[in-house]
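QUALITY CONTROL LOG
STEP: pairwise intake check
CHECKER ROLE: data steward
CRITERIA: each record must contain a sequence immediately followed by its structure tokens, with no blank fields

ENTRY 1 OF 2
RESULT FIELD BELOW
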Amino acid sequence: MSETRERILDAYERILIAQGERAATLEAVAEAADLSKGGLLYHFGSKAALVEGLMGRLHTLAAQDVERMGHDVRGAIDYFLRSSIITAQAKEQTFLAAQTLVLAGDGAAAEAVLSAEREWLRALEERTGDPVLAKIVLLVGDGLYFGSSLVLAAEAAGAGTDEDGVPARTSILPDDTRLAEILETLLSARKA
């Protein structure tokens, strides 16, 4: 994909995440990408083409994530759970933007997000050999993702601490030690 197309998709993601689907007009995306509307339309002929481009990016990033999951030395479950906590990686920004479109009722975005979930589940099933464990891990990962998205939103709104001043990132999300304990508990509970 060309550098300009990537810049347009980056701008589209930023607007979707920060301001929502209604604010992500072609004009706003073109301005955020430092292009004319005509320049944007040259690369993406319509708003539907822009959504399609973003969903293509999501598909590519999810496939790359599945590939990395299979090669992580700590194992697929550990990788999946750690990567479910939102940081500032491209995959996460694209997924957040896609979810914004899903919440706005975009069917293509909903199918793309569900397709990514199916791919992660299939990869977990293949690597664990246990469909029930794979589903549990997927759901725990979804919970970690949801929790971290709430923390990010709270931090962005200036409300990222509890009544004692402890950052939500610390009080809500597991650190590496706690995540290892969660993983150990999951695996031992499944063996019991």
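ENTRY 2 OF 2
RESULT FIELD BELOW
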Amino acid sequence: MFARTTELLEAHGYEHYEVSNYARPGFRCRHNLAYWQHEEYLGLGPAAHSFRLAADGRSGRRWWNAADLSTYVERLGRGEPPVAGEEQLGPAELLAERIFLGLRDGGLDLGTLRRWLGYDLMAERGETVRGLLRDGRAELDGKLLRLTRTGYPVCDEIADRLTPRTGNPDEARSRG
């Protein structure tokens, strides 16, 4: 069904630009692209989410506003931030997100991953990557690892196989 949907939409002028998104050329959702490319964003309004990277790019913070409109308005009326919750993201969390989001989007830039978070995917998960290439689920274009049409439907499983469970490089090697 996924392959047929892609064929049908592409035949009608839509681009497949993310696992579950298609758009006519020039009409990709900029908000979603920023999210998938791990760019910073500021959410305004009830239930809106925001994300900010630390200056060194190795940690970040995500926070979200109160979802209930009356709570949101009350807090603003008292001069308080309407924030309902937040999470701090360390290198391990950012790495997992970068792998997951990179695979969903246009591909995972292995050079950037190494420079940004010090993770050499081919050294840590080379056997897994070679298996994906052999099975036709992914393709490697220079330093860009992209999923194919047969890889997209199992994107989450692939991301899980490429992501270390902890920040421990030895653990990462044992899953490779």
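INTAKE CHECK: passed for both entries
DESCRIPTIVE NOTE, ENTRY 2: The radius of gyration is 19 Å.
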